Structure formats: C-alpha cells, structure tokens
Please model this.
Amino acid sequence: MNETLQIIFGLFGGLAIFLYGMNLMSDSLQKVAGERMRTILGLLTKNPVMGVISGALVTAVLQSSSATSVMAIGFVSAGLMTLPQAISIIFGANIGTTMTAQLIAFKLSDYIYLIIIVGFLLYFFGKKEKIKDLGATIFGFCLLFDGIEIMGSVMKPLATSPVFAEMIQKVADVPVLGLLVGLCMTLLVQSSSATIAVLQNVASTAGPDGGSLIGLVGALPVLFGDNIGTTITALIASVGLSLNAKRTALAHSIFNISGSLTFIWLIVPYAHIIEMISPKGPEIEVISRQIANAHTLFNLGCTVLWLPLTPCMVRIVCILLPEKHAPELK
Model:
C-alpha cells in the first residue's frame, strides 16, 4: 500500500474511532445521568442566567451539545418550556460543548491504556447497569483519545509534503476559505468536536520551519466555521415539530453564525488575547490548548453579548418564522 493511501485510511480510521468513542461516551453518559439532567434542565430555567448555567452543566456532563439542544427542542415542542427559556439553554449548551476540546488538549497518551483497563473491568464485571454504563463511558472516552493519537501519527508525514503545506497556507491566508473548510468538515461528519479535534491535530503538527503547520491565526477561521456547521443537527431535529421548536433551532443557528461573522473580522487581536491567557511554550506544544481556549472564550463572549438580548433573539426568530393563521371562511 502506498503512503498516500495509508495516510487517507489512517485519517478516516482515526476519525471513525474518535466518532464511535464520542457516541459511546455520550450514549452511556445519557443512560447514567440522562434523566437527572432532564430534571435539572426542567428546574433550573426560571431565568435566563440559570438557563445558561443548566445548559452548560448538562452539556459538559453529557458531552453533547446536540443532546442538550434536542432536549430543549423537545421540551418546547411539548409545551413544558417557553421559547426564551429554551434559547437560554442553547446559549449554555454552546459553552458546555467546549469541554471536549479542553479535554483533548490534555496529553493523556501515557495513561490511556490504563484507563481502558479500568473501563473494561467496570463494563465486564459490573453487576449493575449503571456500573456497566460507567465502564462504557470510560471506554468511549479512551477510544476518543486513541482516535486522536492515530490521526496525529498518520498526519506527521504530511508536514513534509509541499502540496499539503501549500494548501494549508492558502487556508491560513484566506479567513473566508478557512471558515468554509470548517463549515464543510462539520457538515460532513456532523460533529464539531470531531472537526475541532482534527484541527487541533493539524495545528500541533510541525511545519518545515518547526512551528505549527497552520498557526493560531490560520486555525481560528476553521474553528468559527465548525461552530456554524454544528447548528445543522438542531435544525434537523426540529423538522416536523412545533413552531417554537423550529424557532429554538433557528436561534441556535443565529447565535453561532452572528458570533462567527463578528469574530472573523477580529482574528489577529483575538489571537493575541488567546496567546496571553494560554500556557507559554513552543507553538506546537501549546497550540492545542490555545484552540481549546479560543473555542471556550468565543462561546462565552457570544453568550455574554446575546444573553441580555434574549428578548431581541425571540423577536428575530418570531419574525423569521411567523405564526401561520388559517384563512377565514367566508
């Protein structure tokens, strides 16, 4: 097998393991804590701030903003939650989903197989379903990191390829192109966590000059594109549901699109801020954490901007998706 095919199969194989691990972890966590998280969502949404906190908490625990968004859409569709409450949960879910990128930035490769053994023992020898689900959660978490390691190892030869380096440089030099790349990648795999993991791997690969292959300034537009692409899941989940459920999904899209289109004009100063608040060291060693911090700060910033404007968001989605009145019979 030639080197190009090995890289392609390795990338897609690593991505498949990452996505499977992500889904296994998310599904198992929902079995362990799903009902409790639904209760928290239902109780802690009396005001917008509590809605944001509950959305962030539930998403951080379940490791899936899509699951939280779908829950919120379901509550609205069933009439158990108002539109403003659901929108505040969506804001929080965007903060909670950044936890995945933060976890990926930790270098756990030295301990990953020890943690896999723990997950295996809990799953195969646990007597209660909750213990088995906890074991499956740990196992999925390790598969997630194993997928990242595979993608990272097969991408190293790409750093010496002039064609790949030139292609990455074009993406880094044209922010709109980076935005479109991030958007298309997330639409393709239906997981912003997966595409951000790939981005962290590419950025952590050393280029010909010894620095990051893409750099923080080049990575940020791709990150913003990922945030736009992730809204598609909520839009799909709202198909066939109530009008307010569709409005909730639309609010999710407006939140991410408005934030991305605002921040893309501030890439250089934003990159300086991220470098200031992130650990110091050689670029290829710290850029994964920088991307994770950029993702977190982006969603925190958008939430701070939009939270006081929740009534405006409600008005916008109501204008874009108005009530359809039945024609009067004469």
Q: What stands out?
A: The chain is about 80% helix and 0% strand.
